[in-house]
Predict the structure.
Amino acid sequence: MANAAALLGTWKMVSWTREVVATGEISDAMGPDPIGYIAYHDDGRMMALVIRRNRAPLAGKAPTDAEKIALYDTMLAYAATYTLEDDKVVHHVDADWNPAWVGTDLIRPYTLSGDSLVISGAPSKDPATDEDVIYRIEFRKVPKPG
């Protein structure tokens, strides 16, 4: 059963893996040890940000066109409203780094256990490879300051 109060707050990503359905191959979706956060607010909004940890440094103060492509390919960010449906949280995307997701619903099966949040189990298409994959994303709750 969905527990809206337990989901509220900021969660720091611990790991993000992808499993290719056809082969069972498992790899890190955004490289080892990604930097990521997801936050659920009591007003029904959420935000997510993930970046690859070891991104290449810029050659100058502003990124070149090639560097912009590399930066885009090593991150994701979106904002949405959300609703809970039993063991799923549905993100109703209204702003996204990838315009193809705007106006879509991202259905995320999840489990909560103490300070652990795991989003996993929904097969989907990898946007880069078009393979059917299952993502598993693990988060730890960020304690409130003070």
In short: Strands lie at 9-20, 26-28, 35-40, 45-51, 75-85, 88-96, 105-113, 116-125, 132-141.
